[in-house]
Amino acid sequence: MYVTLLNRGSAIAVVAIFLLARFITTPKNIPPGPFAWPIIGSLHLIGPYPHRSLAKLAEKYGSLMSVWFGQRLIIFATSPETALEFVKTQDANFCSRPKQQAPSVLLPHDLTFSDVTSHSKLLRKIFQQQFTTSKKMEATQQLRANEFAHMLRTIPHDTTVNVKFHLEVLAGNIFSQLVMSRRLLQPSSIEDTTTDSTEKLKDLMKITADLDRIIGTFNPGDFIPAVKRFDLAGIGCKFKQFRNRMDSFVEKIIQERLEERKSSRAPKELREKDYLDALLDEADQQKEIDLNVVKTMIWEIFAAGMETNIASSEWAMAELVNAPHTMKKAQAELDAVVGRDRMVKESDLPNLPYIKAIAKESLRLHPPVPFLAHQCIKSCKAFGYDIKSGTSVFVNVYGLGRLESIYPDPNTFNPDRFLPGGSNVGLDYQGQNFELLPFGSGRRICAGMPVASLMVQTAVATLLHAFTWIAPKDHELMEGLGAASLSKAVPLKAHATPRLPSHVYSL
Ligand code: HEM
């Protein structure tokens, strides 16, 4: 009994010391937030869906809230005003990224997780020149059109279709061509799982999905320094093994390209200059980029671009199969603008406001990146509070999209809210309206937004124009757990009934 009492006494003393130490070291003038326990902080309040738990906590503590994740203080912004402060007004001081173990091992010196430096500015410049300038978007338009046509050719008719699979093939083939001029899946090999290209696509998809999962998995070492120091779960080692797997996939491709570049045939004569060429040109010229950076940057495109893109189109389709009336409205618009004798083209998009409204509404309800993760560079004041350098500031994009004060009936899928006569007419997702930030805003705005926006709208328009989709009875809209991108827990499967003449499907 004495021993038990002694143990209890020691435990109380330890907690008291921790609380005292926390009281002394905690910055005083910070936004309100839940009580923080020693070591774990308020982690026990964060459920399996952190974006939801934190949106709920913000209802109690306010749109500027301090939450201790273990020993790391994170300030959450969950209103247009607070978001604006960090990603526009004080953007220059909050454009750094919180440090995390997984990306620092898996994607070292990349664009997404690095601070803004001359290195990251150079990477962003190369990225934009290869992906998003209007010249490049025009030059790659046919490539994307071919892949949309391929998607239509390969979706089976009058049967239940795994919609996510077709969106994956679409994104995989488009990005693999933009990055390395390789189409990883040949049209004939769609059902043939033995061909080399199919295996490669599967590998690429698997590594990309695993990368998204690893980066999105809660890692205690990111929040409790002692756990990281001792690496008890061997996480650091697992990350290194995974990086080796990523390396061996791209090294062969880079090697072949280096040999091609050494040979007498100039790449230009063989094909358009792609992202890999652009990175290697840069690596040839100066020391800032070496082959390790080239490898990282290739994976970064897949990590940042694939899952987000696939998830966005899949969520839109998943909401639409639950809303047949909305699907019919979209199809009526498509019939009026495109007709029924050809497939949708990217150039139709400016004339398809209802499709754009569907994309906005889907990204409002299901932002694939639910938080904008930023970090303070220099101690400053915001809304009268003291924010120390190194403090993480997260904008809860998911929470913003569900604010009843901005979006009446916020949990209902209603694209009409963005159209004339609707409650949110005029709001767009390009970083100027702080009510709707699926791509972020300011210096760290999604570098791929123009291509992503175009691809999501064209994918949804193409699928709706070509088929009427009916959901199975057990269809639900649950979010998956433990991944960086917010995807559906169960891939969308729906019955596809063709609605166009047969020749359109064989173009
Ligand atoms: C619908 C699809 C997509 C969504 C919703 C999305 C969303 C985002 C968001 C929210 C950020 C962080 C912004 C911030 O911190 O303020 C981001 C960053 C980024 N995205 Fe996207 N993204 C999408 C597709 C893509 C695609 C297709 C690519 C590449 C081809 C891409 C490349 C990047 C890069 C490189 C960054 C890092 C930019 C930086 O930190 O400076 N994204 N994206």
Automatic annotation (TrEMBL):
Record's keyword annotation contains Transmembrane: yes
A Pfam family hit: p450
Residue ranges crossing the lipid bilayer per the database entry: 6-24
Cofactor(s) in the UniProt record: heme
The keyword Membrane belongs to this UniProt entry's keyword annotation: yes
PROSITE patterns reported for this sequence: CYTOCHROME_P450
Domain of life assignment: Eukaryota
UniProt entry keywords in alphabetical sequence: Heme, Iron, Membrane, Metal-binding, Monooxygenase, Oxidoreductase, Transmembrane, Transmembrane helix
Binding site for heme: 446
UniProt GO molecular function: heme binding; iron ion binding; monooxygenase activity; oxidoreductase activity, acting on paired donors, with incorporation or reduction of molecular oxygen
SUPFAM superfamilies: Cytochrome P450
InterPro entries, per database record: Cyt_P450, Cyt_P450_CS, Cyt_P450_E_grp-I, Cyt_P450_sf
UniProt xrefs under PANTHER family: CYTOCHROME P450 98A9, CYTOCHROME P450 FAMILY 1 SUBFAMILY A POLYPEPTIDE 1
Family: Belongs to the cytochrome P450 family.
Protein name: Cytochrome P450
Organism in which the protein naturally occurs: Physcomitrium patens (Spreading-leaved earth moss)
Gene: LOC112293641
